[in-house]
Amino acid sequence: xxMLAARYHGxxxxxxxxxxxxxxxxxxxxxxxxxPVREWGNKVLILGKEVSFYTRKKYPAxxxxxxxxxxxxxxxxxxxxxxxxxxxxxxxxxxxYLLVDVWAWPRxxxxxxxxxxxxxxxxxxxxxxxxxxxxxTLFKGQxxxxxxxxxxxxxxxxxxxxxNRTPGEQQLNLFLKNVSxxxxxxxxxxxxxxxxxxxxxxxxxxxxxxxxxxxxxxxEGARSIQLKGxxxxxxxxxxxxxAFPLRIGLYMALGCALMLYVTDRNYTSALGEMxxxxxxxxxxxxxxxxxxxxxxxxGDAKKIAEKVKGNRTPLAAMEVMATYLPEDAYVTRMVVNxxxxxxxxxxxxxxxxxxxLSGAEPVKTVKLQGxxxxxxxxxxxxxxxHMEMK
Length: 390
Fold this sequence. Notes:
Blueprint (H helix, E strand, L loop, with lengths): L2 E6 L4 E6 L4 E7 L13 E5 L5 E8 L3 H15 L5 E10 L3 E10 L1 H7 L6 E4 L10 E6 L4 E8 L2 E9 L5 H8 L7 E4 L5 H11 L2 E4 L7 H5 L16 H4 L2 H51 L5 H11 L3 H11 L5 E8 L2 E8 L2 H9 L4 E12 L6 E9 L1
Parallel strand pairs: 1-4, 4-8, 9-12, 12-13
Antiparallel strand pairs: 1-2, 2-3, 5-7, 6-7, 9-10, 10-11, 14-15, 15-17, 16-17
Helix pairs in contact: 7-8
């Protein structure tokens, strides 16, 4: 799978496209002189050793959550940074203590690099190396500095840097205290061959010279690193950096989704309210009929009871509307009274509505109330019908 990786070293940034069998240079130079990269997928920002700080610190045997809080509190005291960003990794777990590798860098670097490289993951350069067996990688940095990073199947083991291509014996011995069993030394800078030979003697390791690539060793190492845990999320300016058509499409999709959600909520609410009203009205009508029946059925009481018994509920009228009403007509108002039901309609052909309802089996009579009024804009007629059910 293709991904982008960039190495930021303070004087500029180098951006590469990593494919399965190849690495391509995308851009390099000062951040302010480069156009923003507009590509989907993982974008890994590797912070060069020139701009990141490292230490190994011993902590009590804490839970992961407590360790995270402890490192967060300590970072400001460990490193000479005003607003640091950081990451850490447990190198060794014992019953009573933890050995933890901690890296930090100025937070301003992240926003600076994001101007041209809106990254999704960020890692210090030490963590960009992974190998199946213990190995040591020597590579050239800025301003004549050579870096050495030891790594194994768990990732970072140890590191040191030296100038003038030759480390002092004391510095080398201090590094070797934390490193053992190196099986291979990868040399990305021929000027560091003498160092590789000294280390080869110490470890009995094979020396692999890599001088046929045009990208930093950490970019080569980025092929095998696991990105889980180094996610930086989308930057607040990431959306603004998308191509304009993509932004428009995204906004339209979000707008349509919101409209559909609101419309569905409105329809659901209106339908629920209508069903509730019909249910209450039906219950009230039945209650009236029951009450009338219990009274002494004499005089006017008998007549009212007979009328109630003979009238259909509004639900029956709505069933008629659903079955017989033409498709281009709809009811705007319904009023139930003693003599029947008054219905307000909107339709293009009032006569068609009257004929359809008059021919309905449950309907006794249909009468037009007043004259239809036409809307000159829509071409529809508004009119009222009085309908009696059988």
